[in-house]
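Students often ask why inverse folding is considered easier than folding. One informal answer: many sequences map to the same fold, so there is more than one right answer. In these notes we will look at a single instance of the problem. The structure comes first.
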């Protein structure tokens, strides 16, 4: 059986968990804190990040968007890509924005773990602008309900819901639901889907030694 090394708050790991559930692929969930060196994530991924999918006796695979590509290639049904090349490219584009937003937030979050006098406000500002810019782009593109590309549930829907719910949980001061009402409504529309309900993110305490 596959093993997925994951972290409870991670939107990247959540994308993979949702895809595995949607494709009814059994897996063992291994929840770690990747920021804690005791988690030894690097044994499986030289880049030291989760999610990591461990596939029996094969090399582990990592990087959430690559894992989703891999799953789609090996387990094409049900497809998590829309029909048509343009639609597929659009779904992947939306995933790129979502990943970029979440990566910028991780950088901001980690910077804020430093003592106040050691933080770089310009670095924090750069990350904040990326998050706001990405969300503003999504807010103009996506519908309030339904699927955001094509006529079926895709990686774009997964990435958007994972991003919105992650920021709602981790970044209260952003007030994402008020500032980006279409994103909030889109995310609520999908909230009852079992693959989302079973993977609701929860916070994880980070050790101050990270920075
Ligand atoms: N681009 C990566 C991002 C993964 C990522 O940033 N994971 C975080 C947890 S949310 C992590 O493992 N960080 C540990 C570290 O960077 O040391 C992906 O999509 O998989």
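Output (designed amino acids):
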């Amino acid at each position: 059986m596959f093993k997925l090394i994951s972290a409870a708050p991670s939107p990247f790991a959540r994308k993979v968990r949702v895809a595995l559930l949607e494709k009814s692929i059994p897996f063992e969930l291994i929840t770690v804190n990747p920021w804690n060196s005791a988690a030894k994530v690097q044994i499986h991924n030289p880049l030291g990040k989760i999610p990591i999918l461990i596939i029996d006796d094969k090399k582990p695979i990592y990087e959430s968007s690559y894992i989703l590509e891999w799953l789609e290639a090996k387990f094409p049904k049900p497809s998590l890509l829309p029909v048509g090349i343009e639609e597929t490219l659009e779904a992947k584009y939306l995933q790129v924005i979502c990943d970029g937003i979440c990566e910028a937030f991780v950088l901001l979050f980690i910077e804020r773990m430093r003592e106040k006098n050691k933080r770089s406000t310009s670095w924090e500002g750069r990350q904040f602008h990326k998050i706001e810019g990405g969300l503003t782009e999504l807010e103009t593109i996506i519908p309030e309900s339904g699927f955001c590309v094509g006529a079926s549930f895709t990686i774009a829907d997964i990435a958007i819901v994972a991003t919105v719910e992650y920021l709602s949980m981790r970044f209260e001061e952003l007030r994402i639901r008020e500032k980006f009402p279409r994103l909030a409504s889109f995310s609520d529309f999908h909230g009852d889907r079992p693959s989302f309900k079973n993977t609701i993110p929860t916070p994880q305490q980070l050790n101050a030694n990270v920075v």
